[in-house]
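Reading a protein record of the kind used here takes only a little practice. The record below shows the convention in full:
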Amino acid sequence: MPRHHKTAVFIDGANLHAAAKALGFEIDYKSLLTEFQDRGTLLRAFYYTAIPEDLEYSSIRPLLDWLDYNGFSVVTKTAKEFTDAGGRRKIKGNMNIELTVDAMETAQHVDQMVLFSGDGDFRSLVEAVQRRGVHVTVVSTLASQPPMIADELRRQADVFIELAELQPRIGRRTDRPPTSGAGRSRSARSAQRDGGLL
């Protein structure tokens, strides 16, 4: 996109964390912000995540504080614990509604949106903002097993950016190697089960 175009970034925290973990790296959020500031006029960068209600101190709190003080608009809500029909303890912390409302309200002020998520539920949102003339880039990964990007979301986006290709610019290496295909799938499920805590 031309440098004068106005951009907003929307980060589905749990989804991006699971995708990066599946690829064996961590996100350097300062570098991520710089990357998209360099691509145009970045009006706002949103980060969405749920926080467990029963924890006085969450391991994600330092990250959220850092993001809040360093140019991100952090949107959180309390994850709710419940027991499903099979008697299993589950945590619900989906941030899709919050992200969607913010994206629709922001659409009239930007030329481009960058969505860090592979969640197919966002396909309708992408289509809706495109009807308002907004160019939508989706960032996720096909390189994990299974892929973290829903096919319908990738097809709807104007541009799809493979997260693995951004790794040299926005990534920080972890000490542990990428997980196997089964581990990757487990990582994604864990992120959902934990209510999107990252």
Summary: The CA atoms of residues 25 and 167 lie 8 Å apart.
